[in-house]
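Field notebook, page 646. I keep forgetting to write these up properly, so this time I am using the form the group agreed on. The chain and the ligand, zinc ion, are recorded exactly as supplied. Prediction of the bound pose follows.
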Amino acid sequence: MKEQDNLNRERWCQSVVLAILIVLGTLVIGILYPSSDSSPPVSMLVWISIHSWIALQTLVLITPGFWAAWLLRSRLPRLWVGIGFGWMIIVPAGMLFDAIAFRWISDRFLSAKILRVATDLRGSLLAHAQWKSVAPTLLWCMGFAVVAIAVLWVSKPVARICMRHRMVAKWGVNIAGVCVCLFSLLALADWQTTANQMRSDSTRHPWVVFRIIDLDDATASEINSRLAAVSFVIPKEGIEQRKVQQRLAGLDWDSLAARDEPFPDVVVVVLESFRHEMVDAEIMPNLSRLASEGIHCRHHFSGANASNFGMFSLLNGLEAIWFEEPVRYSPLMNRLFHQAGYELGLFASHDDWRLFVMDGFLNEQQFDVFQCEPKGWSEVDKRTVLRATAFLNRTNLGDKESRSPRLAVVYLYTTHADYRSDPADAVFQPAADDSFPIPYLPAQRDAVWNRYKNCAHTVDRLIRPLLDRNRVVVVTGDHGEAFLEDGTCGHGTKLSRYQTMTPAIVYAPGIKPERMDQPTMHADLLPTLVALADLPMIDLGVFDGNPIASKRELNKSDLKERVFMIRDYLSDEALFVGPWTTSTESEGMFGIGCRVSLGDNRVRITTAISESGDTMTDFSESQSTSNKKINSQIQQEWLKKRFNRG
Ligand SMILES: [Zn+2]
């Protein structure tokens, strides 16, 4: 009997030791793998109280496991470890997965985005996964498993030691418990500071990770009410009218027949994951020279934060909300330039169009010459540029007079993660070497950024033959790329400025050099090409975009006060970009978040979004008056212009 009592006491003691080690574990994970390095600085006392609050959150979460272990300890001694420890270990495991998920997609592990990644997008993402992005996660998981087994193994001898020094252990645990509770009370008393910390470093807080409290949603609903929670209907007849317009889009045959001037050759260079900071004389001298001789759009946005929507928008002059509609299978760029007698070529260092649902418009039927290699780095890009140059320089059977005009779309891949450059171009140092992990930690960010600059330096050298000044040239990215500015690495995960903004440079022979500071978008580029090549279109209203330049002059007036929409890859969220995006009076507001679908013909405004793609939490009252203005601007400048054209 006494032996049984002793055994029970030992198991109780082991449960307590396990609980303490789990609490320490969650604190260590939060410190080793922070979700940001930008939490507001706090005093030592506040630091202690916030960490006590984290410990208390863990304790509350593991309590059911702890009591399960306690109740089962004598009847089912084996099961008590299984259920009790199993439950307890879920808390730090959840914290670790959440921290990793957060660096990828800036959202919770328990979220709709992760569900979509695990179901719909699993195939395309697995095919696209690089070893270096899988390996660090695997290493973290293996390390975690090893530590968990070690904790279980160590807890028994520690429990025995504690039993030998029973009084010390008992008082130690009691005092620690009282301290955690007292300091947690301090954290709760100053809830504003604690809430700010929880928001800025949310993966450290178990209750946020397990969605027991959702600070963002609380703030979002508050902002919603200030934004007057607008939801508006897109008129069905407006949608149908646009679809008819898209089907009928074409050139005016009479003007075409009367024309005797040849059309200019056109080159559209698309660089993967391309950031606007790269247009710099030191990083990309060839491109920045072109930017200074043409129109440099300095606030340009892709149609989305991902390749498929971005390319769709570029090839159709439409916002990406039309992606699911029939127009996707008959891109307007190809249709219009074919009608003008152009030969069209697609040259790409990338060919998995099907995985990202781009095969509907990037295929052999749409282009006269279709040359794509499996994705590769600068070696493949070199070949792609050679093929495109050969296509552009080729004459028709030696008869120069009858040579048809050419349009080449050149899609280069080198600037995609993991940002490889040719060794001779590694001029920005210190740069991360090939072994850097994805996702990387905040301390590695600057070295990865240098690596990306080196890679852009290589690409600049490669694209030089394409930037011939006798052609109409557009150079842009398919979307942007985040380097932890919004808490994430890469793209396709967040509607932040960093993932959606990419440069656009437009050149045509004789064009007046200009810097364009009004927001522009991918859907503007096709109408711009149509204007610069002087294609006689029947109805320019088919496009969502406006020409940035027409008849070799800048078209600033049409671009003023515009509102346009960019789309997220992982969710059904979208964002309205408008005058507020570049305004100094909008308190750092980047866009207005919304949910939109042409299917249920409705737009629901959600929240104001900052440039890091987060819900804005520090809106002042004065802003709420202008929110009304923002709503009416969206209705006037977007809804009316797109769907109610009278
Ligand atoms: Zn891309």
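OBSERVATIONS:
- The CA atoms of residues 145 and 571 lie 32 Å apart.
- Residues 272-273, 307, 478-479 surround zinc ion (CB under 6 Å).
FOLLOW-UP: compare against the apo run.
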